[in-house]
Design a protein that fits this description.
Blueprint: H1 16-19, H2 22-39, E1 43-44, E2 54-55, H3 66-85, E3 90-91, E4 98-99
Parallel strand pairs: 1-2
Antiparallel strand pairs: 3-4
Length: 100
């Protein structure tokens, strides 16, 4: 039986400058997902239907429900936290300042 064991990131806090990235990353996560679905033949539909390959989330990120946006934002936040927890430094180009 599979038991997920994600790295504990509860002690990692993102600096404000990285929090600002979360929406942009979340939008890209959604776009990557949507591009993959569309490439598999999925289209927009008012209800998800696996047989017809329709999904109501095949819309631009800005048109997603708040709960769908929150799912993508959480993915972005947890990814950024993991990068920091693994010891990487994220630096904005041209700023000369690293985010720890």
């Amino acid at each position: 039986m599979y038991i997920p064991k994600p790295i504990d990131l509860s002690g990692i806090e993102l600096p404000g400058s990285l929090l600002a990235l979360t929406d942009r990353i979340a939008e890209n996560v959604h776009d990557v997902w949507a591009a993959g679905r569309i490439a598999e033949g999925w289209t927009y539909g008012a209800e998800r239907n696996d047989a017809l390959k329709t999904n109501p989330c095949l819309v631009p990120y800005a048109e997603l429900s708040d709960s769908e946006k929150a799912y993508d934002r959480n993915t972005a936040i947890e990814t950024l936290k993991l990068i920091l927890a693994l010891g990487y430094v994220i630096e904005k180009p041209g700023s000369g300042e690293a985010e720890l």
